[in-house]
Amino acid sequence: MITIKEIARLANVSSATVSKVINGKDRYISEETRKRVLEIVEREGYIPNGIAKSLKMKRTKTIGIILPDVMNLFFSEVAKGAEDAAERKGYTVILCNSDNSKAKEGKYINILQEKMVDGIILTASEAETSKYLERCNIPMVLVDRDLELEKPVGRIVVDNVEGTYKATNYLISKGCKSIGFVSSQEVNKLAKERLLGYKKALRENGMEIDPNKIFLKSFTVETGYEGVYHLFNQGHVDGICCGNDLIAIGVIQGLKEKGISVPEEVKIIGFDNICIGKYLDPPLTTVRQPIYKLGEEAVNVLISIIEKKDIEMVKVLDTEIVVRASA
Amino acid sequence: MITIKEIARLANVSSATVSKVINGKDRYISEETRKRVLEIVEREGYIPNGIAKSLKMKRTKTIGIILPDVMNLFFSEVAKGAEDAAERKGYTVILCNSDNSKAKEGKYINILQEKMVDGIILTASEAETSKYLERCNIPMVLVDRDLELEKPVGRIVVDNVEGTYKATNYLISKGCKSIGFVSSQEVNKLAKERLLGYKKALRENGMEIDPNKIFLKSFTVETGYEGVYHLFNQGHVDGICCGNDLIAIGVIQGLKEKGISVPEEVKIIGFDNICIGKYLDPPLTTVRQPIYKLGEEAVNVLISIIEKKDIEMVKVLDTEIVVRASA
DNA sequence: ATGAAAGCGCTAACAC
DNA sequence: GTGTTAGCGCTTTCAT
After folding, report:
1. Nucleotide nearest to A19 (CA to C1')
2. Which of A292, B135, B161, B174 is close enough to B197 for a disulfide, judged by CB 3.0 to 4.6 Å?
3. Which stretch of DSSP H or E encloses residue B317?
4. To which H or E segment does residue A93 belong?
């Protein structure tokens, strides 16, 4: 590998001069040397060693993003938003899948610190704070799943209570009299909040909150599928508010198997607006989150923190109902 | 940030000793010192500076993965397979989205070289080789989209000719007499091959190859949708072989709009077997690629190259028809 | 069993 | 305008 020293030798200058030219700090460099150096750099295909540079500069222009699973449509969109924003600002992204495991999350926090990333974007696996997190003093922003933390961190979230509240109200406005709720267990704030919004809407409309109509497991298609069987064993509903779109997919599938028509017999509303919702049958009515933007803003806020520009640390983005055919 | 030197001072040893202990090169270290050092490391929460280590060792334990778009279900699965495999082997992954732009691809190749990644996994944007690629002498493996390259690289692909050949034959076996093909333009080897397989099947079955029944644009839902209108303007088909599942989604949507039933009037087969295919209406019959494994194997081969174990550089993985309801 | 010291490739303060 | 030099935090050879 050719180094700055070698370029310097070939150009009959010092490596300091080469460094200045390369980095555009060429105020006091003669036009002639500048040109000569640049030519040689080009000719030799010189590529600066970013590792050496990072060691000296104490910054890597790299951020880490820890999320449960890129294969999940929601998180892949967050990741894309983040990567695009990072690229625009000259940062590079290390991708870490936690598989919702706290251990893996901790492991990655550690690795990212070793790699000296300038900042970390985290979708936390659980609600409880781990020591890893508090200890880590790299700039951090939390996306999607919020978390109580002593130290200051950025937060990019939506109002989840409001989201399911609006969703449930929408179902009620469509004439539903008996509304079920299928979602994840309350292992994190987000899941808690979504349940809360559902209950709030029922309460305000004088409808009974029936534990038999609530099925909580995880944010997966399978949960939706199981949820249908659970709900219809316990009785009957004419509307289901789903904790996310994946669950809604499973619910619709389960309903089809049971020969129950959507939306005629049971209306379904999801949450997230993942990109395939509109291709489902029936196309999914859902609560839209600006998913891509979540990732984008996470990076923007993170980089502001890194570069010490002050900026709002907490952003609550808006949700809105997207009406399609399932409700 | 606390350094190895500081730990050394606290433990009354040299940094050389600390280094040896940390890295398990402690054959000649007394049990007592070893313990003492480890305790202090633990107590102080010392995290080694991986950048300094990388500079010295000339390896970063990091690989770069360049793919068109993680939001695309196919590539997010490749990415997950790759990340999981990398994690198992102690490597970390830098994610780069090229958006199918050759310029961005080149830019990333450059950045990854600066970051001194140990290897690169690439899903090339186009068929032509760019100078960037030939110049780059970091170990590389190509996934999904193959490419002619002078230098030796790993390749993880499926037999695309065979894939669409099998798909088209399947349609024929189901009684289709007039089969259309909707896919991407032949900008890369993969697209060329899939078209070839389709033509081969028709030819072998004595069926006419009608340019009006072929619509080539890109590997997107929109192309599928447009393709339907194109095909049915030009005449009529009773089966459509799609270049990938995304296209199939668009085709099914277009057909629905036109009130044409699938699979009764037109049978549809996709390619890839992305994870949502089974939730479509009707569930999608398709040519399965082992997508996750593509990513996994890419990393395995790459790391073998990096670590100079010899191994098969080229892997052709199998495809198989997954029969669901659309054909 | 442990330490001193060189050096990885770069930047920046300071000297000239 | 340009060069000298120290030092970023680590590993490793070689000496003791």
Report:
1. C11
2. B161
3. strand B314-317
4. strand A92-97
Contacts of B132 (CB under 8 A, 6+ apart): B105, B106, B109, B110
Same domain, A41 and A138: no
Q: Count the domains in chain B.
A: 3
The C1' atom of D16 and the CA atom of B10 lie apart, in whole Å, by 23
- Give contacts of B69 with chain A, Cβ < 8 Å: 80
Range of the domain at B280: 160-288
Task: Please tell me if residue A55 touches chain B, with a CB cutoff of 8 Å.
Answer: yes
Q: What is the pLDDT of residues A105-159, one digit of tens each?
A: 999 999 999 999 999 999 998 767 778 888 899 999 999 998 888 889 999 999 9
Task: Please name the residue of chain A whose CA is at the shortest distance from the CA of residue B113.
Answer: A47
**Structural domain contains residue A31:** yes
Subunit contact A84:B97, Cβ cutoff 8 A = yes
Q: Closest Cα of chain A to B122: distance in Å?
A: 16
Contact by Cβ (8 Å): A318, A260: no
Strand D contact at CB of residue A94, distance < 7 A = no
Let me know whether A269 and A164 are in one domain: yes
Q: Does A22 touch chain B (CB under 8 A)?
A: no
Residues 6+ apart with CB under 8 A from A201: A164, A165, A166, A167, A168, A169, A172
d(CA B201, CA B207): 8
Per-residue CB contacts under 7 A with strand C, chain B residues 48-87: 52, 55-56, 58
Q: What are the pLDDT digits (tens) for A25-73?
A: 989 999 999 999 999 999 999 999 999 999 999 999 999 999 999 999 9
- Tokens matching residue A232: 């219809």
d(CA A173, CA A175): 5
Beta strands in A167-293 (DSSP E): 179-184, 214-217, 239-242, 267-272, 285-288
pTM, full prediction: 0.96
Q: Is the CB of B17 under 7 A from strand C?
A: yes
Q: Give a yes or no: residue B212 inside a domain.
A: yes
| Residues B284 and B305 both lie in one domain | no
What is the domain-level CATH number for residue B39? 1.10.260.40
Q: Does the CB of B28 fall within 7 Å of any strand C atom?
A: yes
